[in-house]
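Prompt: Have a read of the protein record below and flag anything odd:
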Amino acid sequence: MHAGYAALGILLILISASAGCLSSIFPYPQPTPTPVQTLLVTALPTTESPVSTVQVSQMALQPSDMPSDYILKDRSDITYLETDQMAHNLGWRAGYSVTYYRLNRQQNDMTEVSQEIDLYPLANMNDVFNIAQDSITAQATGSMQVYQLPCPSMGEHTAAYRESDIENPFSIPTYTIIFTHKDVFEKLTMSGTTTDFEALKALARTASDKIQ
């Protein structure tokens, strides 16, 4: 009986050993890893508003935007009653104006920079700009001449002018830049004893950048 148990134990050992050898020769199939799917999130393109989205007063030039020797003279909303019938017909909606000046009594220097901002329906901006151009060029009468100047684009429409009396050697020119951007029309003017068209262009660019 003991010999039978011994034989049975040896047989089990041999079966286990043979199973191990077989598993090394014929390994169990390994599970195929499931590929991990990576979700790509594509950012949606942002669409810029075709009309301004900030208050009209926020588009006005601030004292910090001006050369250090300019002083704030006046700033205020423009009321409906202050605008003419042409503006009403074009759908004028809101406006704002600001004026700065530079004064040097020792050199008899007095120069002023003004900015006017008006909001109109987007569909009427071409007409608004064309009428503004006609209004400026119509000031050329007699010896008072108006010349259009080259000017970088400030928006969808841009024009710049110099007005001066060609028969007066002491005549000081007045510079004007008008432009439209989105539903905003702006007019910037510099006049006085010491004018600087390059400075006015820089201010117009600052004003255009404020239109959001």
